[in-house]
Design goal:
The complex is a heterodimer of chains A (111) and B (116).
Chain A (H helix, E strand, L loop, with lengths): L2 E4 L4 E4 L4 E3 L1 E4 L5 E7 L5 E7 L5 E4 L2 E4 L9 E3 L8 E8 L5 E3 L3 E6 L1
Parallel strand pairs in A: 2-12
Antiparallel strand pairs in A: 1-4, 3-9, 5-6, 5-10, 7-8, 8-9, 10-11, 10-12
Chain B lengths: L3 E4 L2 E4 L5 E7 L5 E7 L5 E7 L6 E2 L10 E5 L2 E6 L8 E8 L9 E2 L3 E5 L1
The chains are: A mainly beta (111), B mainly beta (116).
């Protein structure tokens, strides 16, 4: 069945460092891919999305490119801030209208 | 996008009691979902709330424990019945619809439940 494998955390970075959180997927067909962010004590917010191969989703300085050849959707940001500290979830949307989530990656950014 | 609210935002309940969580969307949506997020864990789908018919439950979740209602296209409730400490979790609702990208879901802020 469909699945998402996400880089384990926690990831600890200094402010202004480069961020990569790896996400790979297994799916039949052509899924949509998402990154959600969960700030402490809050619900999930949609960060960015891509609906077909080679699409690049971007928002708030974060980017991810839908790579069909490597079945990946890695999240990147060129310069993280303390306010980016949160849990990041990679998710796959397949033919069933349901979302399949990765395990989540805790990012801690230190000043 | 959609703005989703949940009530209550948090609650502390006694073992054996039941709690009903409400989810309200600011626009009509096609599908609504209920998830559980145990401490430090990812999200697990409990069920899809179907308007006008019985909810569709995922493996490991049953209607007697988690009855769900969806009387219209903007509102749903989840009841956690006969609670035990193992039910302590965050419960989140989400929604998707024809005006969103395919499979895109927006989430409510969650209900933080502690069972003593």
């Amino acid at each position: 069945g469909d699945s998402v494998t996400q880089m384990e955390g926690p990831v600890t970075l200094s402010e202004e460092a480069f961020l990569t959180i790896n996400c790979t997927y297994t799916a039949t067909g052509y899924p949509s891919l998402f990154w959600y962010v969960q700030y402490p004590g809050e619900g999930l917010q949609l960060l960015l999305k891509a609906t077909k191969a080679d699409d690049k989703g971007s928002n708030k300085g974060f980017e991810a490119t839908y790579r069909k050849e490597t079945t990946s959707f890695h999240l990147e940001k060129g310069s993280v801030q303390v306010s980016d500290s949160a849990v990041y979830f990679c998710a796959l949307g397949g033919a069933t209208n349901k979302l399949i989530f990765g395990t989540g990656t805790l990012l801690a950014v230190q000043p | 996008s959609a703005v989703i609210s949940q009530k209550p935002s948090r609650d502390i309940c006694q073992r054996g009691t039941s709690l009903t969580i409400q989810c309200q969307v600011d626009s009509q949506v096609t599908m609504m979902f209920w998830y559980r997020q145990q401490p430090g864990q990812s999200l697990t789908l409990i069920a899809t709330a179907n308007q006008g018919s019985e909810a569709t439950y995922e493996s490991g979740f049953v209607i007697d424990k988690f009855p769900i209602s969806r009387p219209n296209l903007t509102f749903s409730t989840l009841t956690v019945s006969n609670m035990s400490p193992e039910d302590s979790s965050i419960y989140l609702c989400s929604a998707s619809g024809a005006s969103f990208s395919y499979n895109e879901q927006f989430f409510g802020p969650g209900t933080r439940l502690t069972v003593l």
